[in-house]
Design brief:
2 copies of one chain form a homodimer. Chain A is α+β, with helices and mostly antiparallel strands and about 260 residues long. Chain A contains 6 helices and 11 strands. In chain A, strand 8 and strand 9 form a beta hairpin. Chains A, B: Homodimer.
């Protein structure tokens, strides 16, 4: 039995999210179907770094699974990509130690959020960036980003119906904003993120950007631990799970397929 | 009665082309439906600068139509965009002289063609660029572009089943290639283009890029006036009708709405 680690990209537009559910097309289901075909009908269960919601995209989602299938190494990626629908692509495949776990071993995750700020929506970005055509105070937003960095109890930035168990203390290593032309990109790197956390962070930062709130409000929102005090949840289609990093041990143990 | 000139963008992915046809969703049909709603049910017929095929995009298609409707000028664009589906957007609207004609008055058109040359397809571009992951000789392709410029009989670059009436002499004012990262953009500006002409030009230039043909072959292909001597027709989804320019008289006569 061999454990395989897989990095994938998907366009979330036509998925009801990552995780298998009774109704709606999901990323997990499409991948498991493809792997089952490769495994001559044997069902395969995959384990991802975490879920993504309906409409959320991925540039570097990671999952693992176990297989007894022996496929010549250079053909593996091509073989599975042939079986996958055009909105999911395998980017990297590698054999890893059987101790590697795509969810438990996550060291940090990076999310990006794209905002299209031009007056007329760019229809080619309509599924890939949030159209928010208002003048934004980027300096104030950047100050707020700095305040978000570090270890905090992010209860106020977690969806009220999250069902998250355990504490809501997370560490944001980096939160920053980059503006290029008509596009603003938010980048968040952290130890982990709560349900809807990035989208609520972006919604709150945009409200700071248009002057509804001030950067310093971030501290009192965090302290309040009350979701009602944070901003709106920004829509799913601007969000990308960008990169998942793992413990060094797995980096060393892995063997490129 | 007032003549209106309209510049629109559309994502061709989910259209069976521009022109109304018995089966399939078309750009023209969606716009005429929206205008009919605005005109209290009176049917409106629009006239575009030309057709685009299924899957072809537009960043600056132009059409005109006549209306007796009086709408406050600043509300017109917003009103129609509210009625249009999300894959068509009106970018500019202006009242023009009744002598303006969106097709007959075309002075020049610009098309762009996007090619994604990275090894792994970028799934977010899969409907918006042609994935062609082969090393390309850009110098040789640029030489070929220079040879295409000027007035030529482009019969060899016109789809055999085009039904084009009249001569096939056209003038290409500018043909060039720009490479940025993993993306190559072809730009063609000319007096007019034959059916499938840009896609056949791109297909031929890519064959020059991979060394199947040489730049100098362009001249003999043109001279042959035989479609069989040119390259393959590149797929529709990389192509954008980018800009349509009109005679100066209309530029002067127009009144911004």
């Amino acid at each position: 039995m061999q454990r395989i680690k897989c990095v994938i990209s998907y366009d979330g537009s036509e998925f009801s999210g990552y995780q298998v559910q009774p109704n709606g097309r999901t990323v997990q289901e499409e991948i498991e179907k493809a792997l089952q075909k490769m495994s001559k009908g044997n069902p395969i269960r995959i384990t991802a770094s975490g879920r993504t919601d309906a409409g959320v995209h991925a540039k570097g989602q990671v999952f693992h699974y176990d297989t007894e299938l022996e496929i010549p190494e250079d053909r593996w990626k091509k073989a599975i990509n042939t079986l996958l629908p055009p909105d999911i692509r395998v980017l990297e495949i590698e054999k890893v130690s059987s101790s590697f776990h795509a969810r438990f071993d996550v060291r940090e995750k990076t999310y990006k959020y794209f905002v299209d700020v031009q007056e007329d929506i760019d229809i080619f970005k309509r599924k890939y960036a949030y159209h928010y055509p208002y003048p934004l105070d980027l300096d104030e937003m950047s100050k707020a980003c700095e305040l978000l960095q570090g270890e905090h109890d992010f209860t106020a930035f977690c969806a009220a119906n999250s069902g998250v168990k355990g504490d809501k203390i997370r560490t944001i290593y980096q939160a920053h904003i980059k503006c290029t032309g008509n596009q603003i990109v938010f980048t968040f790197t952290g130890s982990g993120f709560l349900y809807n956390m990035v989208r609520i962070l972006v919604g709150t930062l945009l409200e700071i950007g248009v002057g509804k709130r001030r950067a310093s409000d971030i501290l009192s929102i965090i302290e309040s631990k009350d979701r009602n005090n944070a901003g709106k949840t920004a829509p799913a289609h601007g969000l990308y799970l960008w990169k998942v990093r793992y413990e060094e041990k797995n980096e060393k143990q892995r063997v490129r397929v």
